[in-house]
Amino acid sequence: MNENPVLLVTGGSRGIGAAVSLKAAAAGWRVLVNYVANREAADAVVAAIRNAGGDASAVAADTGTEAGIAAIFAAVDQTYGRLDGLVNNAGVVDQTARVEDMSRERLERMFAINVIGKIRCASEAVKRMSTARGGFGGSIVNISSMAAVLGSPGQYVDYAASKGAIDTFTIGLAREVVSEGIRVNGVRPGVIETDIHASGGLPDRAWDMASSIPMQRPGRADEVADAVLYLLSNQASYVTGSIMNVSGGR
Hints:
By secondary structure, this protein is α/β, with parallel strands linked by helices. The protein has nine helices and seven strands; from the N terminus they run βαβαβαβαβααβαααβ. Strand 2 (30-35), helix 2 and strand 3 (56-60) form a beta-alpha-beta unit.
């Protein structure tokens, strides 16, 4: 019987989520890769993990809905019967816009996925990890953004605000569940070379911004994944309520 720890990665089929999934599997985690629509990408991550001798499966579900969250955690329970780690990564960005031009529909979608979805996923993870509820403890890593600090004026102020909410949530949840064997931390990526920029209408944004980054280049998804894996690991056993910047000094 495989007793390796189980990790759920939301939005795990592409970008930072995919890099986390692959590195976690290499470190001995059994990985459940959540995705919304791109089954081909999710299957590729799962296949790469299995081909390397790891254990992975995928579940299609939208973290912005209660039905989606229920499907994800039903898959956790049915496939693995336990949960030891959550990387709360699923998130969206929208087209660049000024605040006065943002519709209520845009804001509701942004906060449903980036804030409410992350809080709800964390709450379901706590139910399964908490030693007060019969769990074995665990680790949650919330993926935030340097936008939470910088504000993203003229581009994504709503996205930045959603990430600011996640920073506050990370600190509060960490203090709430620390006595129940659960550590909660966050990672704030800076400008990272992933396809999220294309979804916001600026496919070249990462390299276009290179000159404003002290390191003079965007980051890579695997560099963010290294920080996430540290926070998940026992090497970070005395770390909770912390938010690590992975931003090239920006």
